[in-house]
Specification:
Blueprint lengths: L2 E2 L2 H17 L6 H17 L1 E8 L5 E12 L4 E8 L2 E2 L2 E2 L2 H11 L7 E4 L4 H10 L2 E4 L9
Parallel strand pairs: 4-7, 7-8
Antiparallel strand pairs: 1-2, 2-3, 3-4, 5-6
Length: 145
């Protein structure tokens, strides 16, 4: 069910959600904002982005319920961003379920050691719940931007 993001999903939906999430509530200079947007664009161009689709209004898999941008390594995936929708057509989603499925897909286990390049209350909660250790890495140590 998890699959690579289509170009439209990646370029329109994922990019918009990611940039909005990074900038929400931040007051930062234009230069800093431009750097964040550039980093997102470079990661989306060069790293893996996979989606967890859900049923669309016409019954086909068109709505993205969750997505992950990540870098495969020899042992595990390094997560650059993971997003799970809070609601889908008026129903609360089990965000943890979708997050765990995506992490499993990239061979990242919140009960073990999880490597990521962003701050995430959702991943913090999962690591605490499952007893894992998390390492927040500088994205420049993982990929060349």
């Amino acid at each position: 069910m998890i699959r690579p993001a289509s170009p439209d999903e990646r370029d329109l939906y994922v990019r918009g959600v990611w940039v909005t999430g990074l900038l929400r509530g931040r007051r930062c200079p234009r230069r800093k904002r431009d750097q964040l947007v550039h980093r997102v664009e470079r990661l989306l161009e060069t790293q893996r982005t996979d989606v967890f689709p859900g049923p669309g209004t016409d019954g086909r898999d068109v709505d993205v319920l969750a997505w992950i941008c990540w870098t495969p390594t020899s042992r595990t995936g390094v997560v650059h961003y993971l997003y799970c929708r809070r609601q889908h057509r008026g129903q609360l989603l089990q965000r943890e379920h979708y997050a765990l499925r995506l992490l499993e897909y990239v061979n990242a286990d919140p009960a073990q050691t999880l490597y990521r390049t962003f701050e995430s209350p959702l991943l913090d909660a999962l690591a605490q719940q499952y007893g894992g250790v998390q390492h927040v890495l500088d994205v420049r140590d993982v990929v060349r931007l």
